[in-house]
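A reminder before we start the practical. When you read a complex entry, don't treat the lines as separate problems. The point of joint prediction is that each chain is placed relative to the others, so the output describes one connected object in space. Small molecules and nucleic acid strands, if listed, are placed in the same frame. In the example below there are three entries. Take a minute to note the order of the lines before looking further.
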Amino acid sequence: MLNDWLYLAIFLVLCFALPAMAIGIAGILSPKKSDPIKNSIYECGPEPVGESRIQFKVQYYVYGLIFLVFDVEAVLLFPWAVAYSQLPLYAVLEAILFIAILAGGLFYAWRAGALEWQ
Amino acid sequence: MTAVKLIFLMTAVVILGSAVAVVSARKIIHAALWLVLTLLGVAVMFALLESSFFAVVQVLVYIGAISILIIFAVMLSRSSFVDEGSQTHRRWWIAAIGLLVIFVAWVAVLSLWPQWSVTSTPLPATATDLATLGKQLVDPNAYLLPFELSSILLVTALVGAIFTAMERKGDQP
Amino acid sequence: MSFIADPVNFIANWLTTVLTGWGASASLIQIILFVIGAGLLSLGPLLLTILLIWVERKIGGRFQDRLGPNRLGPWGIIQPIADMLKIFTKELITPTGADKVPYNLAPILAAGSVIAVWAVIPLASTVYGVNINIGAVYILAFGALGELGFIMAGLGSNNKFALLGGFRVVANLLSYEVPMILILLVPVMFSGSLGMNDIALSQTVWNVFLAPLAAIIFFITLIAENARAPFDLIEADSEIVAGFNVEYSGLKFGFFYVADFLHSVTAALVFSTLFLGGWRGPGAETYPILGFIYLVIKAAIIYFAILHIRFSIPRFRIDQMMSFNWKFLTPLSMMVLVTTALLNKLVPGDLTLVRVAVMWAANLVLWVAADQIVKRVVKKQAVPEVAQPRPLARPPQVGTNDILGG
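Here is the predicted structure of the whole assembly.
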């Protein structure tokens, strides 16, 4: 098992090091002629107006919360899915109950209007 | 296994360093990004403990969901990009000395305890077997009740979150 | 083991004997082999991208009734190499007020997290990075890291459009992860392992035959996770210019581009492994190179399907996308998961044909039911037409002073 992780560690370091090195090389090769107009942020041509760090809609956050709940649910279901072939029927029904309760949560979110994009 | 120990120590330094950076970062959005590094370090710790599933779940849930949500929660406030100035108190050294005393005292007390140092035994092959965990989760004699309760807990969290986050009629727009 | 049948392991064995002859210890040889293997496997996707750019531009050109790149070399095949050389010498402009660390880290995270997925994809029966017992969740986890890269790009750029693109990550990527994770449980259930090679190995009957609806849902969510049209909200050029990567230039932009192109071929490989049997095919066990060829053929078909959809279907609106995910895909994938789990337990596994027939029937019933419900709901909520479209685009009163009329 640790052998696998040793390989993964080498691999992951390379995965992120290769793009970083390439960008580093490009940084050496590329010209560096900065001026304030070129560096100003892009807003379709006109000069930038106001602050660029805008506040965002709470809606995104609600979707994020619903996602989090389902993410945690799936993590609990993965070991069950691995053991699935060795499980009796009632164990499958238990997991279905687990999913059904969460489906109730989704149904609540639907009725509360949290899934409507405003 | 000196290589494993070396990686452990390096990871521990990264975790502690980034954890300090979380509380001392001047911009609140940077604190959220440092937290990601801390959580990544914890994932490496899980991998070192040969617990692959939890290492990956750590990345999936804590980095992929929770820290993204934290970043978004931070961005709900307009001042998240503003430099908040120094995060340290004027008399931070008093707290540091106090913590050091408590830490030394703890270590002293714990070292008197006979079970303080134990030699680690290698895990049996079934310990990392996911199927065992899966069977235990739905076994009525083991963790069935916590398993189902966690589902209810998740739904409760969902309902609570939606109830607080949604604009209701009569609220300010 | 001959060279033709299994070149990778043949070379690995040969290297081992050579190194042992030089007196290297077993663990050192292991590490050397790991470094070589990891180096090749991480460099391979990056080089493959060069070819992919040409393929995608060429196919895209044909779809849009033009030639695509055709000047440099035969069929313009040298064009992406020239482009790559050029992008290395382009200036890396950092916008004023950018948050340097997230801004520079974002393209590395985006590209690296796609390449990282390749470690667990079995390329042939004996050729894979690792067959770690959590491969499927590993893929999800690195997908999540890539999302973080997009968010960091949006945060760091100090640009309104980039920030909007970053917000849309939630709508586009996070949301579609929900049905994806739920559907991923189906192949895991069939094979009893999270290891990708175990999943490929267990498919005596391809999973797509046992769970066709699951495969379709998984395919749709894969496209959404890739942020490919029609789900490319985070980089919608006509709405938010280029989304999260608007302030990037030179090779920093190049790596977002690389991540984008690699995403679709990685998705094709993941889909082929999970639902189309991966490297499985006649003779693939004895001749691993055949397995590699089978995998390439399967992945190429899926890749072409992704491209076909990209060039054929216009982008969804954000509200349509959210409704489609939360009100259609998520409930449907829950139903698919529950039905598959129940039926697979009830129907004995040794009767393959019966099993396949029952699964197809159940999937068909589910699909028809979902389709009918959606049709009813849509009819109920139908928006009345604002105005009748005019057949001709000219003012109704030609010849009067009222030129602007109509």
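Discuss with your neighbour: Chain A touches chain B through 47 residues (CB under 8 Å). What might explain this?
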